[in-house]
Design a protein that fits this description.
heterodimer; A: alpha+beta; 2 domains; three-stranded antiparallel beta sheet; two-stranded antiparallel sheet; 5 strands; globular; B: mainly alpha; 21 helices; 73% helix; RNA_pol_sigma_r3/r4-like (chain B)
């Protein structure tokens, strides 16, 4: 079985970390990752940029609406994610619009840049 | 992380929100601060045993408000009660408080807290000191050290600033859209001042003070409150880009390293990436502003892999746009650097000579002018300009940098005479 492990925390506190503390936390997490990667069990790992860097693509009546900021509704749940390598935010938004167009549900796509990405090892 | 370190972080990040709400309740900076301090003391006592509250800011506001009310009641025995409207807000139930915590109240609370620090009668240094003390919660000692004054002097400065703010009256009505936009503009300018106080000091020890990091934290906070404001995106991006070069701006002897000579591998890519995204976001709004343009200029430097790859044409055009938006001799001076790269020192010199009257007391004017004259081989005039720059330098690193110019000019002249 594949599992996704999602990290939640108070962003304002994490952003108040000193550079040294941030580096130490990343190194400590990296050490745990390393053990699982060596056992062939760890796929991609990503750290997201602050929510201030996010935009959200929402279904509109005629066209999708692009809004500044992160996804903030609590009545919907986090269902999945995609990792995309493109040059500009505009391209990423286009991708989200295409997903939205073929997705019959009324869901929302948040576009959040990654701060850190490790592709991990191939897992099955 | 130790327990104490964790609590300290939680208190730091909850501070603007909690102080903003307490200021709304008590309508007085000192009273809000006292109440906040008391709440922090209780947090240090109870959080280690009971564990962290789910919402530290809400906890601090609730406890701070109650302790503040106690204080008011104690004082009331000795002096007449404050006017009714000061107290009328204090009887809210806890549930009401919880409602308020989700609401847009917070946004205006924090904006107000920042806004009172940029009162127009306060000189820039006092605005900076007040914001760092009240909003960021830096100690008077930390602020005093960065301003190179004694703790007592800084304490006095902050007390005076607070008195001025109090006397002017703190605006408590909820601002309309126009007033809010105006406040936002002033607050953004104040945050930029805080950053520059740390950044432009030109000494590595001072660049290490928490000023720059604090300014970035405040800018991010503001952006979180106003996620669709392109100028706040621009401000945040600009600060991130400037800060990304911190490690490359001074050599091991503490000497200034110019942008074109910096080791670009020392630039903080993660800050740059975040800034580039924010600029992309801002551009979508098609509402250019001064911070966005300055960020775009900084981004062109950040995108160039080497100094030679810098897109000076685009930078020149952006400076021209900035000049139209916000005409200023300093902007023209900056544009002259781009012009010197594209068209040579003569064109740049022609551009800045008319600024001599306005910028006569400005270090960078004489520094740049000296550099251009030196490139043109007009050594005598260059020497005079450099001497003037040294006299105007505000730090030893600035003066040392100009002396390097003088030394290299001396070598050029000697070589030419041989």
């Amino acid at each position: 079985m594949l599992y996704a492990v999602l990290c939640y925390d108070a962003e304002s506190e994490v952003n108040a970390w000193s550079k040294e503390l941030d580096a130490k936390v990343m190194a400590d997490l990296g050490a745990v990752n390393q053990r699982y990667a060596e056992a062939g069990k760890l796929g991609p790992v990503a750290r997201l940029m602050p929510t201030t860097a996010a935009v959200t693509v929402r279904k509109g009546v005629t066209d999708d609406i692009v809004m500044d900021g992160p996804f903030a509704e609590t009545k919907e749940q986090f269902l999945g994610f995609f990792v995309l390598d493109v040059e500009t935010l505009e391209e990423a938004i286009t991708f989200a619009r295409e997903l939205s167009a073929v997705n019959p549900a009324n869901g929302t796509y948040e576009v959040r840049p990654l701060q850190y990405f490790n592709p991990g090892v191939p897992i099955t | 992380m130790t327990e104490l370190a964790w609590i300290d972080l939680a208190l730091t990040s909850a501070r603007p929100q909690a102080m903003g709400a307490l200021l709304r309740y008590f309508r007085d900076l000192d009273m809000a601060e006292e109440a906040y301090q008391e709440a922090c003391l209780r947090a240090l006592k109870t959080w280690p045993d009971k564990g962290p509250p789910r919402d530290p800011a809400a906890w601090l506001i609730f406890v701070g408000r109650n302790s503040g009310i106690d204080q008011v009641r104690k004082r009331a025995r000795h002096q007449p009660l404050p006017p009714e409207e000061v107290l009328s807000d204090l009887e809210d139930t806890e549930r009401d408080l919880a409602d308020r915590l989700d609401g847009a109240h917070y946004r205006d609370d924090i904006l107000r807290l920042l806004f009172v620090c940029c009162h127009k009668d306060l000189p820039a240094t006092q605005q900076i000191a007040l914001a760092l003390r009240i909003v960021s919660g830096l100690s008077v000692r930390q602020i005093a050290r960065a301003f190179l004054v004694s703790e007592a002097a800084m304490e006095q400065r902050i007390t005076r600033a607070k008195a001025k703010v109090g006397a002017a009256g703190i605006p408590f009505e909820t601002p309309d859209a126009v007033a809010r936009a105006e406040r936002l503009g002033l607050v953004a300018a104040m945050i930029y001042l805080v950053f520059n106080e740390g950044y432009s000091a030109g000494v590595p020890d001072k660049a290490d003070t928490p000023f720059c990091a604090e300014a970035i934290r405040l800018a991010r906070l503001l952006l979180k409150l106003f996620p669709a404001e392109p100028e706040i995106m621009g401000l945040t991006a600009l600060l991130l880009l400037q800060h990304s070069r911190l490690a490359a701006r001074f050599d091991k002897d503490g000497q200034i390293v110019l942008l074109e000579d910096q080791d670009r591998s020392l630039w903080d890519r993660s800050l740059i990436d975040e800034a580039l995204v924010l600029i992309d976001k801002a551009i979508r709004h098609r509402a250019p502003g001064a911070f966005q343009i300055q960020a775009a200029i900084a981004a062109l430097h950040a995108r160039a892999k080497t100094a030679d790859e810098t897109d000076w044409l685009e930078i020149d055009l952006l400076y021209q746009t900035l000049e139209r938006l916000q005409p200023s001799p300093v902007v023209r001076l900056n544009r002259a650097v781009a012009v010197s790269k594209r068209e040579g020192p003569e064109a740049a010199l022609a551009l800045i000579e008319p600024l001599a009257d306005k910028l006569n007391g400005y270090f960078y004017f004489h520094g740049l002018r000296g550099g251009l004259l030196k490139q043109l081989g007009r050594y005598g005039e260059a020497h005079e300009a450099f001497d003037r720059a040294i006299a105007l330098a505000t730090s030893s690193a600035e003066a040392a940098h100009i002396r390097q110019h003088l030394d290299s000019m001396q070598r050029e002249r000697t070589a030419a005479e041989k």
